[in-house]
Design brief:
The complex is a heterodimer of chains A (161) and B (142).
Chain A lengths: L2 H19 L9 H5 L4 E8 L4 E7 L4 H9 L7 H24 L6 E2 L3 E3 L12 E9 L2 E9 L3 H8 L2
Antiparallel strand pairs in A: 1-2, 1-3, 1-4, 2-6, 5-6
Helix pairs in contact in A: 1-4, 3-4
Chain B lengths: L2 E6 L3 H13 L4 E7 L2 H10 L4 E4 L8 H10 L8 E5 L4 H9 L2 E5 L4 H12 L3 H5 L12
Parallel strand pairs in B: 1-2, 1-3, 3-4, 4-5
Helix pairs in contact in B: 2-3
The chains are: A alpha+beta (161), B alpha/beta (142).
Chain lengths: 161, 142
């Protein structure tokens, strides 16, 4: 797992959580955060110089606050809007990390975010994540993984990693 | 003066966030219209006059770049202030949008970034919105 890619993913995720959701990731997880289950996942597929998927998994306990901060107190209580807000976080993380990895000239097309109640449904056994980062948020945690589909050589050729 | 604004983004959440940011920014808002893609946005502009367009790029049906090109080709919208609010990171694509006269705000954005960009692109300064700042007289008694 290239460390620069992990750093890029971590920076994009931190900036997105801080600015969009007003939540501040903690990279040293507390015991409570470590024990919090990852109950919901959202994925964003992308096509471009290389193809793949970004997966964001979170503890459901952080959803109401994230949605409230993004959309307003009333909206933050609605489960569907909580999921939509999570999708937007994943979309923005994906849109920010790809140019850092592939270069500023690369053009990617992002699909609409898909929400999954079962995080295992979005993992692909035959594709190891190219980059993954995990952090604590409030009393829960979040994990972001970047998968590249097919031949990872295509990605390595673009990124020079 | 109140701003009539059109927000074009395929994400309902992001439209809601942009509108919320606009309201929080302190700018006087008139009518705020929403559209889910460039085609819907063009229809909305046929029916309504707006002072400002906030536009996403990656959208189905008609993307933001195509909508912007069509706007610039029409005399009544060729000078409409446009702010592209997008995660788009391709310098090539951003340069093309800039040449079409759009300002760029990258997601994620801070509310004040959006507000400052609106003030800049519309040519309105803070004093026109918030009123002149009273200056303390320097001949007072101490």
């Amino acid at each position: 797992m290239p460390s620069t890619m992990v750093q890029s993913l971590s920076r994009a995720t931190t900036a997105t959580f801080e600015e969009l959701a007003l939540l501040f990731p903690e990279h040293q997880l507390t015991d409570e955060q470590t024990a919090a289950p990852l109950g919901l996942a959202v994925s964003v597929d992308f096509r471009g110089p290389f193809n793949g998927r970004l997966v964001l998994e979170v503890s459901t306990s952080i959803l109401p606050l994230a949605a409230s901060n993004m959309l307003g107190e009333h909206e933050g209580k609605q489960p569907q809007l909580q999921r939509d807000a999570l999708g937007e976080l994943a979309n923005v993380i994906c849109g920010n990390v790809l140019p850092v990895i592939a270069g500023q000239e690369a053009v990617f097309h992002l699909s609409a975010p898909k929400v999954h109640e079962d995080a295992t449904a979005v993992s692909r056994e035959h594709d190891a994540a190219q980059a993954c980062t995990e952090f604590g948020v409030e009393d829960g945690r979040a994990r972001v993984a970047l998968f590249v589909f097919g031949d990872a050589e295509a990605m390595l050729a673009v990124t020079g990693a | 003066m109140a701003f009539n604004v059109l927000v074009v983004d395929d994400s309902a959440v992001m439209r809601q966030m942009v509108v919320r940011t606009l309201k929080m920014s302190g700018l006087p808002l008139g009518t705020v219209l929403e559209a889910a893609n460039g085609e819907e946005g063009l229809f909305a502009l046929q029916e309504h006059w707006v002072d400002l367009l906030l536009l996403d790029i990656n959208m189905p049906v008609m993307n933001g770049e195509e909508m912007l090109r069509r706007l610039r080709a029409a005399p009544e919208t060729e000078n409409l202030p446009v702010i592209v609010v997008s995660t788009e990171g391709s310098e090539t694509r951003l340069a093309a949008l800039h040449e079409l006269g759009a300002a760029i705000v990258r997601k994620p954005f801070a509310p004040e970034t959006l507000r400052d960009t609106i003030l800049r692109i519309t040519g309105v300064n803070d004093a026109e919105y918030y009123g002149a700042v009273p200056v303390a007289s320097d001949d007072g008694d101490f």
